[in-house]
Amino acid sequence: MNEKNSKDSSFSGQLGFVLAAAASAVGVGNLWRFPYFAAKDGGGIFLLTYLILLVTFGYALLSSDLAIGRKTQLSSIKAYGAMKPGWKFLGILTFFVPAIIMTYYAVIGGWITKYAVTFLTGAGAAAAQDNYFVGFITNPVESGIYAAIFMLATAFVVYRGVERGIEASSRIIMPVLLVTVILISLYVLTLEVHDADGTVRTGLQGLAIYFLPNFEGMTLSKYIQIVLDAMSQMFYSLSVAMGIMITYGSYVKKEVNLNQSVSQIAIVDTAVAVLAGMMIIPAIFAFSGMEGMAAGPKLMFVSLPKVFNSLGIVGIIIGAAFFLMAIFAALTSCISVLEAIVANCMEIFHAERKKVTLVVSTFYTVVTVIIALGYSLFYVEVGLPNGSTGQLLDIMDYISTACMMPIIAFLSAILIGWLVKPEWIIGEMEADGSTMPRKGLYRVVIRYVAPVIMVILALQAFGVIN
């Protein structure tokens, strides 16, 4: 028996695995990044582009990661070396993605927790003030405490293991999250706002902007940027090219139908992202019009609290429900990032889960607080190669998601497409007796299309192209 699985449990079955993997995929990327990219990139155009990429690139990358994990029964740092001698370096490179993401993910989770507490205590009006968010993240004591609490909650679940910790929490969190996001989405569509000049804006009008593509003024360069944004979001949302799904795949039993699992994970993840857009974009449009749609990353922490506050007591209740749901989503993703690190360290040091989790979590609690203080005591402002500027959190995000993920996906595509050949993955996808759909599409994407697109994404990240 594989060393890791001999001392650590696996997922109980397909449902447990799908819920855990979907919970990993559903996170801040769905509730925060997806809506603001959709708002920035023309609503329906971004949505259509994202869906096309999902059934092509997303399908290929997610299938590859899960198949690699189950076939090798190893986490990412050793899995690539088991696939092809001399390629262990790719596993090491992949390991650094969650290792870097873990430095700041709990910081964002702390922000969300702060807003949940604010709305639950009836102080939603305070959260709607222009300087509330900046005031919080620049407060070293408060921001550091919330980040540490979120990190410790993540560590507790990982400490309990795969089935009793990760799977058990996902079985509770995912249904609650899905029901909450559906109810809020339906309510938002009933909104109707009357301006002083007689203008009426409704949630349904915002929904039309979100779903219907508008190609007016569209140029090739603008659409290329939309494609790149959608691709970046897909990496972040599906947890691919960072070793997480390889780790989760290593916990999957051979009788589980991976083909069905890939489809189910993608459907749940995309449904939450689309519903998050249905919650946020119609609400922002109803209260702020097209100007509010340009809020960018501040959409969730600045614009949305203003909307909730404008709805009175109903808005306070909806705001509390929304940020509680966001805590669930952020927590499940943070758990998967920490699990990828812990699983790799267990293999490297031949140590048991609880000891590794304690050591790793202690280290990351300290680092998380340092990153949280990057807006106050450790404030820096650094120019990045892609033309943006950022603080400590932004720098870590840029290195891990903008730079490393495209490079890892490129190298993985070369390894699978040209060295071990696509049949290596296809064979594992069909190990339970099922047939892998879209095999021809998989071969084309992994061999020819993915390497080209990954190079373009990497060049954009390094500022070579705009």
UniProtKB/TrEMBL annotation:
Subcellular location field: Membrane
Positions of transmembrane segments: 12-32, 44-68, 89-112, 143-160, 172-190, 234-252, 264-287, 307-335, 356-378, 398-420, 441-465
Bilayer topology annotation: Multi-pass membrane protein
Keywords: Membrane, Transmembrane, Transmembrane helix, Transport
GO cellular component, one term: membrane
Alphabetical list of InterPro entries matching this protein: Na/ntran_symport, SNS_sf, YocR/YhdH-like
Pfam families in the cross-refs: SNF (PF00209)
Xref: NCBIfam families: Na_transp (NF037979)
Protein name per UniProt: Neurotransmitter:Na+ symporter, NSS family
Species per Swiss-Prot/TrEMBL record: Selenomonas ruminantium
